[in-house]
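#data-curation
PF: Archiving a pair of folding outputs for the training set. Convention for this channel: one message per protein, sequence first, structure tokens after, nothing in between. First:
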Amino acid sequence: MAQHYSAHHYFHHNTEYHLAICKRCEHAVKPPEIIRHLSQRKGHGVPMRVAQRVCNMIHDAWPDVVDEPSIFPTHVKQPIPALAIHKGGIKCRSCAYVCRTTESIRKHWRLEHQFSVYNHSRKPRPSEVQAGQEKREHAMQRVVCQRIFPYGLGSHYIHIRQPGPDCEPAPPPPRADIVDELIQQLEQTYIDSQPRRQTIQAARSTRRTRGSGGRSGPHIYK
């Protein structure tokens, strides 16, 4: 198998933020971590000597790629090339925080803004669900986002303000009242099917009884 020794084969050089972005993983890799990133078995599986050579090439050819970049934007106008684009971003309307799960945004609201959708920690009552969901949707914004590093400093999600027509944010989940209505329809369908199912089962039982001659047990001859 031919080995590629060019840094450009594995990484994209971002000169604006001084990054080496892995083309396969679509996130930036810090120079001290390049050898491990390329050689780990679960990732690229590149031989150690090749990974070392690529790392040296990045060090020599891309001297602007630093170990700890100092610029970490919270938002960009357009996507940063080569970084993965996530359509399911959730942005806090009170600050620049962006995440990708409702659990993360709830935790952020609780810790940073002392805000809770239901104003209590217990499980919401059915009558509170719809109003709570509407309140949550008003407190957040569905966005498209990226992030530079997968962990550590610089791993926060970045809001893309103009992602383009091909990268529209994911739609919000259906409202609680719509979900409840669908559940009720399914439950009613199940209930309506029960009499018919019982009739079919009774008919099958009758046929089995007739097929056995009406005997409920073995006949004993004397």
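PF: Second:
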Amino acid sequence: MATDEATKPSPIPPYPEMILAAIEGLDDKSGSNKSAISKYIEGKYGSLPPAHASLLTAHLARMKESGELVFLKNNYFRAGAPDAPPKRGRGRPPKARDPNAPAPAPKSPSSTGRGRGRPPKAKSPLEAAVKQATAGMPKPRGRPPKKAKTDGAASPSPSPAPAPAGDGSTPGKRGRGRPPKVRPAVPSETAAA
């Protein structure tokens, strides 16, 4: 039994400890990337599990999220290190303001003029009353029917009278589809004589 314990290799320390030791051991001012950390751990602790790469990636991500490590430009830094860059938020940083420049005057609402976009439609009292009355009712299914044209919607100039039909019938509502081709009158023999 004593020989089994002597030949058994010492267990490797937890991954967070190995990662922090690797970053300290590499001691690079620009930080340590994942491959450098992995090579350092493989060199120092020879017997690693077969899933070493995925375990290292998972632990680096967890330590980055918890704030133990700072990740910048594909390199990892210790969070408490004095040479670690400050953590930046996402997106473009705001422009630096000139301290000597005067502050811009606040705009008054009357000087701005009309707002952006299309002006709102004027609401008629009838539409408002109908909307209030039908507020609790369920909406009907399907497409709503077309609204009938009113006299106010017509153009101010009267439209010209429709041209008479080619067959001499009174103009009326046209049927559906393409109209039949108008055939020229065939000269009769009696008219030629």
